[in-house]
Sequence to fold (288 residues):
Amino acid sequence: MSDQTRHSLKELQRLDEEIEIARQRIRDFGDHIADVEEPAIALESEVGKTRSRLQELKVEERRTELAAKEKGTRVERLEERLKGVRNVREEAAVSAELEMVRRALESDEQEAYSLLDQIRKISLQLEEQESALEQAQAEVGPRREELEQERTDAEKGLEDLTRKRDEFAGTVSDGELRMYEGIRRGGRRRAVAALTEDGACGHCFNVLPLQLQNEIRHGADLIRCEACGVILAQPSQAEIEAEADAEAAAEAAAEAATAAAAAAATAAAAAEAGDADGSGEDGSGDDA
Fold:
């Protein structure tokens, strides 16, 4: 594979990775906005439920009030009727009915008072909830606008990346592009990987036969890893240097860890020896 082909495919892969990151970032904005709006939405739901409950209580109180009024009218009529009874039997019947209606009236009046008390309490609760909702909406508005603006900016950035990607794809040969995009469509995030210094695939680290290694390093054909299917390329000088730096850093970290462990062991041994000496001196003093 030529240096130009290797560079082109890796640059195409870099752009595709940036595009995927940008798309995920845009998708995440939906969750961020939902998180910001959630407190206000929850309060709005509570306000709606409280309003409905308040309306139900008002309807029930009005119904009870009308029923009490109707019973009050019946009480008045029965009292008038009681004044005009002609015999004891009729008086007893009217009196019994009057007493029954009075008890029903008293029950309705007590229920009406109870409903009015509930209406008063829920009205106060509704005022508090509406105040909290108003405050939450005032806080949500600016943050939501900020996130929506960031999402708009991210969408514009994605458009720019997509345009660059399309322009760059036009510089890659049809065969190379088909192979590259076929690998990407297969679900792999990486379609191109560098051959490691020891001749392994930089994606799955499967060691390749020497013949394939030589073809990758010196040939012009596109060669795919037999294990994972990515396109293999000779690493650039920058990648070689980066790998060497990473190995050196890992070795230095391992040496530092070994030295630290040795120092800790030495310190622990010294402390243990000091404790033993102190115990011996205490024992000698006791014998004396």
Remarks:
- Residues 194 and 233 are 5 Å apart (CA to CA).
